[in-house]
Amino acid sequence: MSFLDYAPAPESTALLNLRPEYGLFIDGEFTDGHGESFATISPATEKPIARVASADASDIDRAVAAARKAYEKRWSTLSGRDRGKYLFRIARLVQERARELAVAESLDNGKPIKESRDVDVPLVAAWFFYYAGWADKLDHAGLGANPRALGVAGQVIPWNFPLLMLAWKIAPALAAGNTVVLKPAETTPLTALLFAEIVQQAGLPAGVVNIVTGAGETGRALVNHTDVNKVAFTGSTAVGREIARAVAGTGKRLTLELGGKAANIVFDDAPIDQAIEGIVNGIFFNQGHVCCAGSRLLVQESIHDEVVDRLKARLSTLRVGDPLDKNTDVGAINSAEQLERIRTLSEIGEAEGAERWSPACEFPENGFWFAPTIFTNVATSHRIAREEIFGPVLSVLTFRTPAEAIAKANNTPYGLSAGIWSEKGSRILAVADKLRAGVVWANTFNRFDPASPFGGYKESGFGREGGRHGLAAYLEGGVR
Ligand code: NAP
Ligand code: MG
């Protein structure tokens, strides 16, 4: 250890009061599931954290029935103001239990504690505060007077931002007057189960929020349940397609938030130091397990070498390791399966002729780890430039003119997000206008705010979450 190394600064897990086993949360209570229970593990150690129930079709039936009853008998009879009070209460409880939620999230997901503590959990609270404020103002959502709720929402979320995706789904649904059944991802069920405790603490009427854990089969049973009025899904494009097919013709409303392969475009007049930080944040934040990650760096040819050199120097200072250490920048890959996917695509990148580089990293003996990686000499046709890797892997491409940057940025089946780095405001606006992406960041990346709509074009899905648009997805008369 040199004198510049950081001493370990582990966050304590003492305040975590986890149960050894969790049931399904249905009708306000934890109950057994009929599927085979499973262990959720820490991806940094591969050690089991808790056992979690698995919901089969009969459990989904119970959960949807509880949500239906709560909708008819209770939630739809409350005023918006009263619904808002419950949501404000949930938001405050999230703040009160923030540290505990952050530790649980980092333990179960592998993300660095400084991210779960400073990004995920504060945004979760912000989402509930924001939509709490909307609950009594639905007349102003732009959907006419007294817009009606849809009924029961079936919601399925991925493992990369477990609690934040829950908040993106549950907060607008409840504010708009719906009740919900939510399935968290198999590898990250823990914070959703702690959220179920918060729902109890907040005194929410039984059945308004139901949490059903399990694997893909559980999600499928929920999506296909005939008494669900609305399906909201965040996850891969492949599963999104299957869901779109299953829901077609049923009259259920659907929103899909799927994958991405965002271009992060750096012009030669960009503030380079800021851009380097933005590129790093764009692809190495949350181990690159980010649907809107800036995974394709498009850099103007004249500054390519300088940017790549500085990027390599910066990557060499990133600390990869224990997610619960407060100094960690890059944590563990969420699962062995995801690690395998990242490895395979990276090997394909090398085989296709791109040049691979990573800083030297020492990894713990157990757990799932992947060094931050840069590919240069990448061609638009390479699979690492086209497919979502969903890991800490950046593909660097070049351009000469703004028109070429725009053409390359849009040359993707996805369209979730993009970034532009330039000192010149008029150029930023002109380029942003031509990018087919739901979110375009300028001189920043991966910024989220509950008031700002988020969602995709093309294979990144349809519908928007966040802002007034996010409410429309849960109200009659709203966009599909
Ligand atoms: P995934 O395999 O599609 O899984 C997402 C969720 O769907 C999980 O809860 C999963 O359960 C469940 N599921 C699997 N098969 C299903 C089926 N046939 N019917 C219903 N539900 C099913 O995606 P992932 O690998 O967990 O997540 C990574 C992907 O999500 C990436 O492509 C990423 O871009 C995308 N993503 C998009 C956004 C966005 O906002 N656009 C945000 C985050 C992630 P299991 O956990 O048991 O598999
Ligand atoms: Mg886990």
Automatic annotation (TrEMBL):
Keywords: Oxidoreductase. Transmembrane segments: none annotated. Residues 31-476 form the Aldehyde dehydrogenase domain. PROSITE patterns: ALDEHYDE_DEHYDR_GLU (PS00687). InterPro entries: Ald_DH/histidinol_DH (IPR016161), Ald_DH_C (IPR016163), Ald_DH_CS_GLU (IPR029510), Ald_DH_N (IPR016162), Aldehyde_DH_dom (IPR015590). The active site is at 257. It comes from the Bacteria. Pfam families: Aldedh (PF00171). Belongs to the aldehyde dehydrogenase family. PANTHER family: ALDEHYDE DEHYDROGENASE-RELATED. This is Aldehyde dehydrogenase family protein. It comes from Herbiconiux moechotypicola.
